[in-house]
Specification:
- About 55% of the residues lie in helices and about 10% in strands.
- With about 500 residues, the chain is an alpha+beta fold.
Length: about 500
């Protein structure tokens, strides 16, 4: 009886402690948040409520935004603002740029994966990376080199699709596109022939798997209030993340070592085509400022920019092509018209005709890719942290330390921004007399906006156009299962959950 009494007493004590802890936890969340003040956005819950709808989080946030264009979720020490108001987006990303930063809250969450790379830092480190990257992206050498790489990998991708077509096999287009764009960013960015698409790089395949899984695990931290404890004891999702980051680090550090050896054996390296060589040249000037760890962070940020964003957009693009076969056919016809195809069925000859001048004439394709980004932005949610108290253009007060996030995924579905057909895939909305007409970057925020607008925007469009033109010239695509419910996977970039299984059919050369 004494033992039973002791067990019951301990259990009751534990329950009481948990109750007190939970009560204190709730008190911390709701205290000092001006819950009923009209000067602050309405509260739709806490950041921890995201656990309940994590797998459909962007649609849940969209439903909130339809009711309240700006709303809040509460965290322990601050509020998280979410907005679909273009005025607020411009205010945070441009007008008051210096008063909003990434914030320690966001940096702490992403640091294990992205470190001090360009997407995770502010101030001098951001300016340093931005300056170097901007200089590199503006060179004709890199532009010509990247086009050659994109054409070569697009031809290789077409060959793999052809093998599936002849064997009457389904293909996971997202998986192939991820490998294709990874090969491209490693060659353009780091001068490395990875050849994941060819299947010869087992280390590269392991890297891409670890990197994609880490992307999702890091994003999970926004909903998992126990992640710091799990990281401390190296258990659960944090143990998996640590293992993946170790694999990623080993792979990237080897890339850096190999590149250093390559450059040290060359007398003249000022005309090197890849981006990493330029950063390594900077590291020679100041090794303390540009350590291997810092180079590792820069590389991973370039990868998430050059692989994930392009591959995910193209994956959703081909999904849209399957759902809208008339649009798929219209783009295929435009390809033949612009390229002035002479009926040659050779892919290598065809890619040789994909000059910059020809790409610029593909207005309908450009509109279709942009329409894909409007509905399926590569980065569905992004934002900043307020460094000082502020008032947004819609009149709501922001306190120092609050996060202000713009919902690119939701904005693409707002009828007050895009009209009553906002949820319809309609490339024509971007065209005037057949010519592509861009919208304000604060309305169409897929490439960010303001001083931090994406430097690789034109590179992304160039690669997406080349791949799309090659594949749609030689193949028609259909979904393996027309009834499949295609969903996204919740992570920093908008992957299709479980991939996208398609069937490819060869187009007649004379068609």
């Amino acid at each position: 009886m004494d033992i039973l009494f002791s067990v019951v007493t301990l259990a009751a004590t534990a329950v009481f402690i948990l109750f007190i802890s939970f009560s204190f936890f709730l008190l911390r969340i709701y205290t000092g948040k001006s819950l009923r003040s009209s000067l602050h956005p309405p509260v739709k819950g806490t950041v921890f409520h995201q656990l309940f709808y994590f797998n459909r989080i962007y649609d849940e946030l969209t439903s909130y935004a339809r009711e309240h264009p700006t709303f809040r979720l509460l965290a322990l020490s601050h509020s998280e603002f979410y907005t679909v108001d273009p005025r607020n987006v411009e205010h945070v990303l441009k007008t008051r740029f210096n008063q909003y930063s990434k914030g320690e809250y966001n940096c702490t969450i992403v640091r294990d994966l992205l470190g001090d790379g360009i997407f995770a830092v502010d101030g001098d480190r951001w300016r340093q990376q931005r300056k170097l990257a901007s200089s590199e992206f503006s060179t004709r050498v890199l532009r010509d080199f990247s086009c050659a790489v994109f054409r070569r990998n697009a031809a290789k991708l077409a060959g793999i699709v052809s093998e599936h077509e002849m064997g009457k096999q389904t293909l996971d287009i997202q998986d192939l596109l991820m490998k294709c764009t990874l090969d491209s960013i490693f060659k353009v960015g780091f001068g490395v022939d990875l050849n994941c698409l060819g299947g010869s790089s087992k280390d590269g395949t392991a890297f891409i798997t670890a990197f994609d899984e880490s992307n999702g695990l890091v994003y999970w931290r926004y909903a998992d209030f126990l992640w710091k404890i799990k990281r401390l004891f190296n258990v659960g999702s944090e143990a998996v993340l640590r293992k993946n980051v170790k694999l990623i680090d080993d792979f990237v550090y080897q890339v850096i070592r190999n590149k250093r050896k390559e450059l040290s054996s060359q007398v003249h390296c000022s005309d090197k085509e890849d981006i990493l060589s330029r950063f390594l040249a900077e590291s020679e000037k100041d090794p303390d400022k540009m350590s291997d760890r810092y180079l590792r962070d820069i590389i991973l940020n370039f990868i998430i920019a050059g692989k994930d964003t392009t591959a995910t957009t193209l994956s959703w693009f081909f999904y849209m092509m399957c759902k809208h076969p008339l649009i798929q056919e219209k783009i295929s016809q435009q390809v033949r018209q612009v390229i002035d195809d002479d009926g040659c069925g050779n892919v290598d000859d065809f890619v040789g005709k994909l000059t910059e001048e020809k790409l610029d004439k593909m207005h309908y394709l450009h509109a279709a890719l942009t329409e894909t980004l409007r509905l399926y932005p590569a980065v569905p949610v992004d934002g900043k942290c307020a460094e000082i108290d502020d008032i947004l253009p819609d009149g709501f007060k922001v306190k120092q330390g609050d996060g202000v996030y713009y919902l690119a995924y939701s904005m693409g579905r707002m009828t007050n921004i895009w009209g009553e057909d906002a949820e319809e895939f309609r490339p024509e909305r971007w065209l005037k007399n057949g010519i592509f007409c861009p919208e304000s970057p604060f309305k169409f925020v897929s490439f960010h906006a303001g001083p931090r607008i994406c430097l690789g925007k034109e590179f992304a469009y160039r690669q997406m156009k080349i791949i799309s033109m090659v594949l749609l010239r030689f193949f028609k695509f259909q979904m393996e299962d027309e009834k499949q419910q295609v969903r996204y996977k919740t992570m920093f970039t908008l992957h299709i959950d479980g991939g996208l299984k398609l069937r490819a059919f060869a187009r007649l050369v004379s068609s």
